[in-house]
Amino acid sequence: MITVNPCLPSMPNSYLFAEVARRRKNAEAMHRERRLISLGIGDVSKPLPQAAVRALHAASDEMGAEATLKGYGPAEGYAFLRSAVCAHDYATRGVTIYPEEVFITTGAKETVAQFQWLFDRSCIAAVSDPVYPVYAETNAMAGRAGQWNGQEWERLVYLPCLPENDFMPMPPDQQADIICLCSPNNPTGTVMTRSALEAWVRYARERHALIFFDAAYEAFITDEAIPHSIFEIEGAREVAVEFRSFSKTAGFTGLRCGYLVVPQEVSVPTPDGSPVNLNALWKRHQDTCFNGCSYPIQRAAEATYSPEGQKQCRIVIESYLANAAAIRKGAGAAGLRAYGGINAPYVWVETPGRMPSWDFFDLLLTKGGLVCTPGAGFGPHGEGYVRMTAFATAEDTAEAMDRLLALSGSFPA
Amino acid sequence: MITVNPCLPSMPNSYLFAEVARRRKNAEAMHRERRLISLGIGDVSKPLPQAAVRALHAASDEMGAEATLKGYGPAEGYAFLRSAVCAHDYATRGVTIYPEEVFITTGAKETVAQFQWLFDRSCIAAVSDPVYPVYAETNAMAGRAGQWNGQEWERLVYLPCLPENDFMPMPPDQQADIICLCSPNNPTGTVMTRSALEAWVRYARERHALIFFDAAYEAFITDEAIPHSIFEIEGAREVAVEFRSFSKTAGFTGLRCGYLVVPQEVSVPTPDGSPVNLNALWKRHQDTCFNGCSYPIQRAAEATYSPEGQKQCRIVIESYLANAAAIRKGAGAAGLRAYGGINAPYVWVETPGRMPSWDFFDLLLTKGGLVCTPGAGFGPHGEGYVRMTAFATAEDTAEAMDRLLALSGSFPA
Q: How far is A307 from chain B (nearest CA, A)?
């Protein structure tokens, strides 16, 4: 008899953003006269840079002519894009990454999910808390999280990120084998300092752990002292991989492109102790399970590195950072404490009077027509906060802050 | 200490087509004066239909304008494409499939690989033999294949496809829980009859098994009696899912789009016996692990269903079928027995004098500059054959057959 992987049905019923979308739809149906404003899901509002649009057109024509058609591409991505990544995202920061270490994918979410299967179920996974839910859930699917008790996964190590530690997860006393870090962090909008990252690299080296470093939002870093990559830290090449995405940097949420860096130095043993080169193992996985990211999409990603593309991306990023500043200010005016939003497109807003985050979410949605994301959805230490994203238009962001202010009289003290 | 999933490093060193590419490269380096002709990897030579190219351009412009930008799409794909699939690929054959049962993906290979993780490791998997290697290898990655003994996976059930049974796998006496069928078959180029499919549906219902039906090549079926979909068989909705692809039907190998149909009726228990709706489970998986196929690519796929797109696809398919006929004829003229190629873009050619398939592959490559794919790479019962694809240009196919004929004097009897 066929049976399902028991780890999957044990998951909470719905993915966070699917639940947000469901409540949003209900609220829309009840108040058809009012336009909802969403600072909820982190989706972009600015169009694709024109440099990328032009590259899409050119690649589409190539696909339509026999002489220039591109069929199956390399599973690891085209050399032109892997080289551009090395030159623009790493060499510019003094970091040497080789094209053979870069794997082009269809996005960070997809990559995180698939990368999980490379590791044994017995590994202990640690996640920043709160964090993008995909880290906890894909570890759970891979059998490493134990049971969901309604609030948290029993076998997952949560690394609390709170005002007390400037929202920086710190190495625990206990053993963790897989460590999921995200800086700039989604959802708190805060960053990890160089010394915090150094502490993690030390921990990983001592404990034979592997760091999954999510740098999807590095382009939003404004503070020059903050590392953009885990590979800016000495010793990281043996103990870390890095996930990146074109989604927020270049408006690719609907196009789908990202990459994973796996340095040649990472060696991970099998449970019986034979060393395995992780780069080679992932290459083998990709050869078998993936036929490469769409060619026109890879050309569009390459175009974001052109001088014109870089300029266009920068303008968009600045505009989102301006929104983040407006949200910080607006939250303050409404009497709410806000964190993040300086080196990231997310603002982490404390709920008034310690209100549960889903309650505050419902209040903003039903009374103000304002969509955010409840912090509890990002992990147990996300309770008491909501996430507001800076990806709406400037007009919508301003209107959202007006609505927040108007509602603030009804907030509990 | 972090450890890798022990199922992965136990895999044979390289993926079949990576090994073919490696030997091809060596041969190219040794004979720089000679142009290689590839009837090897099943990659298309005809460009994307112009209807799809036009759709790509239009969607690229949408992505470049604020009013029409598409961000994150639904994980299951856009309704416009799911509806088009139901109307054009199923309703036209009298089969009712609902849009909620269609999941748009980035291609059949990716989908097969990810779908494996839904099932328990204890399940027994059966694969047509020979078959597209991804079925065996992704079952192995998911822990269901046991050890690789150098020729086969010890725990996999192989369903021999030989001239004696018209290359149609038949239900075994033993229990199999996951059954991977592919018709038209890659690599043999043969098809399964209605009665063979009925026998499998009966088996699956009696044994509580699930059929993974790969119909990626259904557009090449010329015999009107042959089903294009497992869902043309009564009772299949409870026991089958179907993988499809735009790769060969519409020249999408480099664009990446496919879909999976999971009927609402499929229920699979957990190991402790609780029933799980497979459609809902896969939806949950996709919500967590996937952000949808690229929007412009989905628009291009939709355009292949337009009257113009259908006409353009048909012309290309007919041209590949003409190549297949030329290969059958050319193989015969060279004294080789050939199968398939009438309802499929593949011809399955018996090696001369029972020569091992990698040896015949090397002979054609080094002496004739002709690339095919050795049958042994598709499973133990592929030994003694090579696969030739009909996806090259008509000129290259003709030239390949001339070279085959010229070499035939040196074939062993």
A: 18
| Number of other CB atoms surrounding residue B372 within 10 Å | 27
The CATH code for residues A16-47+308-407 is 3.90.1150.10
Domain boundaries, chain A: 16-47+308-407, 52-306
CA–CA distance, B61 with B59 (Å, rounded to integer): 5
Residues of A in contact with B135 (CB under 8 A): none
Please indicate whether, in this complex, the C-beta atoms of A270 and B41 are within 8 angstroms of each other. Answer: no
| Contacting residues of B for A64, CB less than 8 Å apart | 47-48, 50, 52-53
Name the minimum distance, in Å, from the CA of B84 to any CA of chain A: 20
Whether the Cβ atoms of residue B183 and residue B244 lie closer than 8 Å to each other? no
Structure tokens at A327: 């949200």
Q: What is the dihedral of CA B233, B234, B237, B238, to 10 degrees?
A: -120
Interchain proximity A2–B208, CB inside 8 Å: yes
Nearest-Cα residue of chain B relative to residue A294: B255
How does pLDDT run across B13-65, given as a tens digit for each residue?
A: 777 888 888 899 999 888 888 899 999 887 899 999 999 999 999 999 999 99
B77 touches chain A (CB under 8 A): no
A293, HSE (Cβ side, Cα atoms, 13 Å) = 31
Cα–Cα distance for residue pair A332/A343, rounded to 1 Å: 18
What is the rounded average pLDDT for all residues in chain A?
A: 95
Angle at B8 between CA B3 and CA B14, to 5 degrees: 135
Determine the residue among A3, A238, A316 to mutate to test chain B binding: the one whose Cβ has the most chain B Cβ atoms within 10 Å. Answer: A3
Task: Tell me whether B174 touches chain A (CB under 8 Å).
Answer: no
Do A16-47+308-407 and A52-306 come out as alike in CATH topology? no
Question: Is residue B33 within 8 Å of B381, Cβ to Cβ?
Answer: no
Question: What architecture does CATH give domain A52-306?
Answer: 3-Layer(aba) Sandwich (3.40)
How many CB pairs (< 8 A) connect A and B?
Answer: 280
Q: Is A207 on the interface with B (CB under 8 A)?
A: yes
A72 close to B (CB below 8 A): yes
State the Cα torsion B181-B190-A63-A293 to the nearest 10°.
20
If one looks up domain B68-305 in CATH, what number appears? Answer: 3.40.640.10
**pLDDT tens for each residue of B119-156:** 999 999 999 999 988 999 999 999 999 999 888 899 99
- pLDDT tens, per residue, chain A with 413 residues: 999 998 888 887 777 888 888 899 999 888 888 899 999 887 899 999 999 999 999 999 999 999 999 999 999 999 999 999 999 999 999 999 999 999 999 999 999 999 999 999 999 999 999 998 899 999 999 999 999 988 889 999 999 999 999 999 999 999 999 999 999 999 999 999 999 999 999 999 999 999 999 999 999 999 999 999 999 999 999 999 999 999 999 999 999 999 999 999 999 999 999 999 999 999 999 999 999 999 999 999 999 999 999 999 999 999 999 999 999 999 999 999 999 999 999 999 999 999 999 999 999 999 999 999 999 999 999 999 999 999 999 999 999 999 999 999 999 98
Residue in chain B closest to A50 (alpha carbons) equals B64
pTM: 0.96
